[in-house]
Amino acid sequence: MNKNILIAGSTGAIGSEFIRFYSDDPNVEKIVSLSRKKIEPTHNKIQSIELDYSNEQSFENLNKISQLESLSTIIIATGILHTDQIKPEKSIDEINSKVLEKVFQVNVYGPILLVKKLLPLIKKSQGVKVVFLTARVGSISDNGLGGWYSYRSSKCALNMMIKNLSIELQRANKENIVIGIHPGTVRSTLSEPFLKYVKHGIFSPRESVELMTQVINKISQKDSGKCFDFSGKVIDP
Ligand SMILES: NC(=O)c1ccc[n+]([C@@H]2O[C@H](COP(=O)([O-])OP(=O)(O)OC[C@H]3O[C@@H](n4cnc5c(N)ncnc54)[C@H](OP(=O)(O)O)[C@@H]3O)[C@@H](O)[C@H]2O)c1
Question: CATH number for the 3-229 domain, one of 3.30.565.10, 3.20.20.370, 3.30.420.140, 3.40.50.720?
Fold first, then answer.
């Protein structure tokens, strides 16, 4: 069956790899690519649309999603851990409300408001897989180290949004599935400053996307609301 896929964060390391992966998939008919700056489509099945979570007006651009009758998969691969102005907090002394607000805006408010805007298209579809890129550090039970207050708690809040949305979307259509997925530690702008401290394996974006797409292909209704890692293992909340 031909699939239409929407990918948010398509200029990021992981998002751009999802775009490449699905561009090469003959079963994918259309790809809607969302990014802060428009991309030059490398394939005629790609429609590029600008979306910046920090600019409310830019959500109106989603009205430009043209001629789509349905979506099969939504992948939200946006997120921040640090910026020029933001460093993940090592201790409570470093917490500041502007940083919390910015990290929550990009990691929580933006993704859920995006799905809200896509609801009419989701409702027209025959069952959609909504996949949010989350992080293992958002798990409360996995937190043995502390630190990274804004990022950790934003991903934890995102995981609750995922659970809530899974309940509501499955009521509307039992074929809808909503999950979070942890990509592993992947070489990217987001992870780069911290890779020197990583003691386990580091994935290339391609390796991570190949693993995650296997998980996305396998998930079924019973999995909705859960968070998985790249190998398909459930991450406890
Ligand atoms: N890399 C890892 O090791 C790792 C581990 C665990 C979880 N993750 C999660 O995986 C996801 C993708 O991360 P990545 O490693 O691919 O990082 P990345 O290369 O830095 O990509 C992040 C993406 O988020 C977009 N973004 C940032 N601010 C935005 C805003 N205001 N509005 C809309 N989009 C915005 C970026 O857009 P621009 O290109 O315009 O900046 C970029 O496309 C994130 O959710 C991250 O938390 C990554």
Answer: 3.40.50.720
Locate 206 and state its tokens.
């391609």
pLDDT tens digit sequence for 82-115: 999 999 999 999 999 999 999 999 999 999 999 9
- Ligand 1 centre to CA of 122 (Å) is 24
Residue nearest to ligand 1 atom 33, measured at CA? 52
9 CA distance to ligand 1 centroid (A)?
6
User: Positive or negative CA dihedral for 86, 92, 98, 103?
Assistant: positive
Domain residue spans in the chain? 3-229
Give the other-Cβ count within 10 Å of 228's Cβ.
21
**pLDDT tens, residue by residue, 12-46:** 999 999 999 999 999 999 999 999 999 999 999 99
